[in-house]
Structure formats: structure tokens, C-alpha cells
Amino acid sequence: MRPVLLLAVAFSAALARHVDLPAPYSDFCILQNNTNLYDPQKQFDFPWYNIDLDLPPKQRWTQVSKQYSQQIKDLIGVLIDLITPIFPNALEWVDTVFGNLEEKLPQPYRDEMMSIADDTGIPVGQIVIYNIFYEIFTVCTSIIAQDPNGHIVHARNLDFGLFLGWNPNTHEWSISSALRKMIINVNWIKDGKILYKSNNFAGYVGIYNGMKQNAFSVTANERFQLAGGYLGMYRWLTGLEPNGKWMSWLTRETLEQFNTFADAKQHLMTTPMLSPVYYILGGYKPWE
Question: Chief subcellular site (predicted)?
């Protein structure tokens, strides 16, 4: 048995050996050149906007849409540049299929997206595909931690790489570079008061990260399955699963309708969805 064991150990060691990846994916530590991309002094620089839920849906996002019109166009341009070399007719297909899809989408998200399209001059199909980004690409991760006193830290990173559009000079994915310029904080207003808060990308009406004061915080995270959100979208379009929820709209719905950690948890656990997801839920009380 000894020769076999030695062979197995040698084989395992060979597999564990470091392998240098080809450029531009080779190892590089940005700290070595004092080019750390994170500047903690800028952590509070992101602007705050109020989205008034008492206004008609078509009036809620006008300020954000007009101020970030170019950034939204730039992001969609990045997506198109990455997709069209693989699918040359992708833009025409997106405008046709997703432009018609908006008629089937639930309110108030439908009217909100249509208003963003009107305010920016971007075809509504492209606004829709941006807003159902998770169901198509299924990306995003976040973390949660708790100190010995029960204080919770709930955080999000920016990992929208998709293995496409790598810039070897800035050491960033092109999608991440575009999204970074679109980060905003939102106060969601109801009856003149803040109902909850979220961290958003301009032009995106759903929620990846949200917090309801004295209640709970929630973030959505990638959950990989072979069919992903494609199967859910197909079943929804064909009427096989008409009540399935879109991920970021379910997050928003939960923040709007529920006021406790337990109720939010129950709703997220039991609501049928179109795509796989891991939700991280943090409570107001210690150890929730």
C-alpha cells in the first residue's frame, strides 16, 4: 500500500501547486504601488435621494433619472459592448423582447421603469433588462458580522465582474467601474416619514441592500443553480409560474410591508421566486 500512498501524496501535491495565470488575470497586489482603490475618507460621499411612495410611480424617480442619465446610458453601453461580440443581434432582441415584456411586469415597478426610460431617452427594453439584471446574471455577495456585544455589521462588496471587460491598467471590471459612478443612497418616504433606507444604483428600482430602522436589514446574494433565473423567467413568461417574484422587487416589498425580523424572514422564506438567491437578514435585537 505504501507505493500507492506515496503516489497519491505526490499527485495531490502536484494539484495543489501554484499555477500562474495568463495576463490580464495574473496576480497583482494594488497595495504594492500605493494604489489602493478604496479611500475610507470617501465612504460618506455618496448622495442621498428621497423616493416618495405617496407620489404616482411615474413621478418618483425623475430627479435621479435626469441627474444620472449619462451614467445609466454608459452602463447599458458597457453591457451591450460585452454582449454583442457574442450575440450580434442582442440589442435588437433586447429592445423587442424586453420592450414588450414591460407590459407584463407588476406595478408599481412597471410605471417606474417606463418613467426612467422617458426621462433618460433610453429604450424601455434596455431599462427593463438593467432592472432584472439578477435574474439574467445572478451575481452579488455580501457579509454580516456581530461583535461580542451583539452589534451587527451588514456590508456589501462590488463584485460585478462577470469575467468580461477586464481593464489591466485600473485592475477593475468594466461593469464595476460603471456601477461605482451610479451608487446612491435612498430614503423611501411614506406619509412624510422615512419608511426604510437602501443603497441603490441609479435607475434601478429594486433593492439589493436595505434597512428598516429598529426592525431589520437585508441583502441579496448569488445562489448558483444550473438553470438560474432563466428557467424562472421562462416559466413566468409562459404562465407556468405567474406569481413568482423577481428578486430585488421581493426585497423592496419586504421592506415596505413588514416591521419585524421574524415577519421579514417568514416572507422571504415562503414566497415563490423566479431565481435562486441567498438572503442575509440581520435583526434589530442582539443575536438576531
Answer: other
CB neighbourhood size of 163 (10 A): 7
CB atoms within 10 A of CB 250: 24
136: cell is: 439574467
Residue 5 has pLDDT above 70, yes or no: no
CA 181/CA 163 separation, integer angstroms: 20
| Secondary structure of residue 224 in the 3-state scheme | coil
DSSP 138: -
CA distance linking residue 225 with residue 85, whole number of Å = 26
- 213 and 136 Cβ atoms separated by less than 8 Å: no
Active site annotation includes 29: no
The torsion angles phi and psi of 185, rounded to 5 degrees, stand at -105, 145
- Which pLDDT tens digit goes with each residue over 216-267? 999 988 777 666 666 777 777 777 777 888 889 999 999 999 999 999 999 9
Alpha-carbon distance values, 35 to 38, 39, 143 (Å): 9, 10, 25
Catalytic residue among 140, 220, 247, 273: 140
DSSP 114-125: HHHHHHHT--HH
